[in-house]
Amino acid sequence: MNYWNNLDVRERWLVGTALGLVLMLAVVFLLVRPIMENKTKAERAQVNAQSDLALIQKHKGLLSGKSTGSGTLKMDRNSLFQTAQANSLEMTRLNPEADGAMKVWFEESSSQQVYKFIVDTTSKYAATVSSAQFTRKKDGKVSVVLTFRPS
Length: 151
What we know:
By secondary structure, the chain is α+β, with helices and mostly antiparallel strands. It has helices at 2-5, 9-58, 60-64, 77-86, 111-124, and strands at residues 91-96, 102-109, 127-136, 142-150. Helix 4 packs across helix 5 (111-124). The longest helix has 50 residues, at 9-58. It is rod-shaped and about 90 Å long. The mean pLDDT is 85.
């Protein structure tokens, strides 16, 4: 306080104004800006979630395992690779199981492309989705593990 009392009126005004500006900038950069950025991220996430929900509701029969595949062709490794390629998906892993099922992994994919892959596969080949695990990444992409069983 002794420092403040030793200043002239003009110096007090300058120091007070500088402190006010620093405080205002701190509020803007530490409070207002992060809140606005989080709001934008939340709005983007909400739009993505709503589109995913609409796709899931539209094709919930395919994902429930209750519907049978309407296709007549036999599903094999090559057919899954070709369908993934046709949907611009990069399959990271494919694991055939003992009962004829095929487990498929996709990383960093668009959820719309994955749903289209599911629809194309179950409508073209005699296969159903017996399990599906979707994990959303921070950038909006998804990692997916699907298990197709022959119908």
